[in-house]
Amino acid sequence: MRSLAGDVIKQAFSQQTDEKLHRRLYAAICSCILEGSLKPATRMPPSRDLAGELTLSRNTVLRVYEQLQAEGYISARTSSGTFVSDSVLDNLDLRPNKEPVAVALEDHTRLSARCLELLGHASASPRQWGAFIPGVPDVQHFPHRVLKKIQDRLARRLRPAFLTYDAAGGVSELKEALADYLRTARGVRCSPDQILITEGIHQALDLVARALCNPGDNAWIEEPGYWGIKNILRINAVHFSAIPVDEQGMIPPGPTEPAPKLIFVTPSHQYPLGSVMSLSRRQQLLLRARETRSWIIEDDYDSEFRFSGQPIPSLQGLEEETPVIYIGTFSKTLYPALRLGYVVLPKPLAAPLKKVHNDLYRGGHLLIQAALAEFIREGYYAAHIRKMRQLYSRRRQMLVELITRQLGEHYLGSFSSNAGLHMILQLPAGSDDVAIARQANAQDLLVRPLSRYYVNEEKCSGLLLGFASIEEHEMAAAFSRLATIIRENAV
């Protein structure tokens, strides 16, 4: 039997485009109810009649009716039929008119002042692979099959602990392997229970800022320095002072500078300039931290890739019981998408920060952590680093030669040490490195402007050129295009 409600539903059904018939019918009835075409207390067509009108199976209609009833759109009355629910009136009263929807959404999506400030300084590149992208390793030379084989072996005798929430700050085997590696390779003084596994550097920095700072506290950062630290401090409402660096690292400020709660440094390879913090500066910084009861955050992000001389030992291991929180990551030594980093916490902070981390972030990736532990224990990690160190050294040397030959030695950065995954191409004073970088990015040359790493008005002009993720046979042609842009725009 035809009904007015059936005609209304049929018209709405014809306007739906979903390929799945039950989804088309569901959307049609919902729109009729919410737009008022089917008013509260309206009797719905019997399922058999509606199926006949729409040329659908009765099971399809019954399936949709059951879903609508479960969601409260319709209700069945014994021996009376199915009706649009009276409670839909409440939703219709709250539903805004169509015209002011955009305004209402804007009101609902008002962002916090801290979020707006972060957005104003957002610096993450939308592209993370290509010629001269800084900070990205060569992910194609990683022995993926080896790690996969280890992971598959562990998966065949999977422990339940690998599939639940992590409450211990990481897999114990990985923390033990890391403790041994860091003691040997970086001179870090730690035991496994001081290590916390995180999802990379940013989570580690956010944890430290949240756990140790109150809104309005002060921090010192390097000038120029990593943009990620600044944005994490901004979102946590921590004020910061940008302290200049020179060829010996951070220049200790005078006593008039407000005492910081946190001091962020990259002493083994300053980011982005490349200088190494001298022993005297390290000792001064440790003394200052003890006097002001500050914590030094040592970011040791790419210390493994030093191409000449002896490795630079960590600041954390310089003395016993230093006020240093040591942070590292596998993003540079293995690959960024792994999303694994680590924090070596001073003993008094280990238990509380692990508890905070567990409550805020709910760590995971336990199977890959266990596989990585065996990858380290079996010597694959050290072998991969040795191999990549040689590869990156060749690529860096090739880039130095290209800069010298096509632009001149004066374009080589002043502090650039023979280490890391990028180098500084120093532009003549007054050059607009932001405009040059923008033009280069448009041609898929993913350089970054040095001036964007500064906070204060006094800035140096230059470009960060990553050499790790570009093959040697591609580098010459790519750099020639970049050199042309520089010659056309540099002062």
TrEMBL record:
Pfam families: Aminotran_1_2 (PF00155), GntR (PF00392). InterPro entries: Aminotransferase_I/II_large, HTH_trans_reg/aminotransferase, PyrdxlP-dep_Trfase, PyrdxlP-dep_Trfase_major, Tscrpt_reg_HTH_GntR, WH-like_DNA-bd_sf, WH_DNA-bd_sf. Residues 19-87 form the HTH gntR-type domain. Keywords: DNA-binding, Pyridoxal phosphate, Transcription, Transcription regulation. SMART domains: HTH_GNTR (SM00345). The keyword Transcription regulation applies. GO terms for molecular function: DNA binding; DNA-binding transcription factor activity; pyridoxal phosphate binding. It comes from the Bacteria. Gene3D superfamilies: Type I PLP-dependent aspartate aminotransferase-like (Major domain), Winged helix-like DNA-binding domain superfamily/Winged helix DNA-binding domain. In the C-terminal section; belongs to the class-I pyridoxal-phosphate-dependent aminotransferase family. This is HTH-type transcriptional regulatory protein gabR. It comes from Citrobacter werkmanii. The gene is gabR_4.
